[in-house]
Amino acid sequence: xxxxxxxxxxxxxxxxxxxxxxxxxxxxxxxxxxxxxxxxxxxxxxxxxxxxxxxxxxxxxxxxxxxxxxxxxxxxxxxxxxxxxxxxxxxxxxxxxxxxxxxxxxxxxxxxxxxxxxxxxxxxxxxxxxxxxxxxxxxxxxxxxxxxxxxxxxxxxxxxxxxxxxxxxxxxxxxxxxxxxxxxxxxxxxxxxxxxxxx
Length: 199
Fold this sequence. Notes:
mainly alpha, elongated, TetR/AcrR family transcriptional regulator, DNA-binding, HTH-type_TetR-like_transc_reg, Homeodomain-like_sf
């Protein structure tokens, strides 16, 4: 009974966060979505930050291992760029409030947020770095520092979610249009990056 109530609350919180963002979400909205009263919600989770902590733990627990699996695989560098972009953007479409909240909380807590939630869990970039250096040496890609390439990949994948409110305000784009654009970016981003680095 307790577990199913928690699951119901977490699913409701994820839906409300997605619709209203972290700043716009209220505990009452989450209680209403879960079909419970606010007192019961507070019994399980004292604040929306605590709720988010749980959701973040679950999402990062799935995403980080998957991204590491892609990075450490034996597929070609170009296939790796494709797979990474597809996976990252797909996960963020499911949790579009996540990147902005992480940046806000990390800045607010000066790194304590990531330390608390991720500890020593990181993306293992060594194999990617070696692969980039090998492709540069072979002459298949232009000289680029592996971290520069990774920064370009992660920036192009994450920025639309970080800038979503501004992007929607400036362009008049609704959520359906935004999601359609993100679907297109799953192939547009890797195509753009690969074309930029290959010789």
